[in-house]
Design goal:
10 strands, SSo0622-like fold, five-stranded mixed sheet, 38% helix, five-stranded antiparallel sheet
């Protein structure tokens, strides 16, 4: 992950940090009430947001997705056929298949975290990596703090139908769906390990990491 530095921004005061965090948590509560928050990650977000030196932005615990597109990554032409944040049955996949080109994907957990300082960013990276999130890095660092992205390693993406032609029989699809379910379960276990670690760290009183800002 590349990191962008911006030393031109003014330092955040403690009051600025508090206002930004309160605003972010307010949006999270609104999104939760509207059903827009992945329920499997809400407990982890609560653990992260209980830390005085961090708060979360858009995050997901991982999901299985069925979509229609000629090729993966075509964000604007992609048509979602189904999303599941927990295990799915192959019959659900088969019944949801629509269109000429159908892909099945297992997407990993992704967590976005704002931190108040360089020290806080480094502490958070240590916790993430020791909890199994090896793909974690500081995307942006400034006098106002850091922005961290952490992703799981679980990922699967393959076509089930191309140009109207079925590429796999139902038994093969079942094997693939079973593999995707197993990978999703592993991702959820990683989320749980991180939550346990965060609550342990919070109990140690890590409350002074905002004192030294990024430079």
């Amino acid at each position: 992950m590349g990191m962008r530095c911006d030393a031109s921004r003014n330092r955040l005061t403690p009051e600025d940090w508090k206002r930004r965090k309160e605003a972010a948590l307010g949006r999270l509560r609104e999104h939760f009430d509207e059903g827009r928050v992945d329920p499997d990650i809400f407990s982890l977000l609560d653990a992260l947001n209980s830390l005085p030196f961090a708060y979360t932005t858009s995050s997901c615990s991982g999901r299985i997705q069925l979509y229609e597109a000629e090729l993966p990554g075509e964000k604007f032409s992609l048509r979602s056929l189904g999303k599941w944040h927990s295990s799915v049955d192959e019959e659900e996949i088969l019944s949801a298949m629509r269109g000429e080109n159908v892909w099945l994907a297992l997407l990993p957990p992704i967590i976005h975290i704002r931190t108040c300082s360089l020290r806080a960013s480094l502490a958070m990276l240590r916790i993430l990596r020791e909890s199994g999130f090896k793909r974690a890095g500081i995307l942006h660092l400034s006098r106002a703090g850091g922005f961290i992205e952490a992703m799981g390693t679980e990922r699967l993406e393959m076509p089930l139908r191309l140009r109207g032609r079925e590429l796999l029989d139902p038994e093969a699809i079942k094997l693939i769906v079973d593999a995707a379910n197993s990978m999703l379960l592993r991702a959820k276990e990683r989320i749980h390990r991180l939550e346990v670690r965060l609550r342990h760290e919070a109990s140690r009183g890590l409350d002074n990491l905002c004192g030294e800002r990024a430079t």
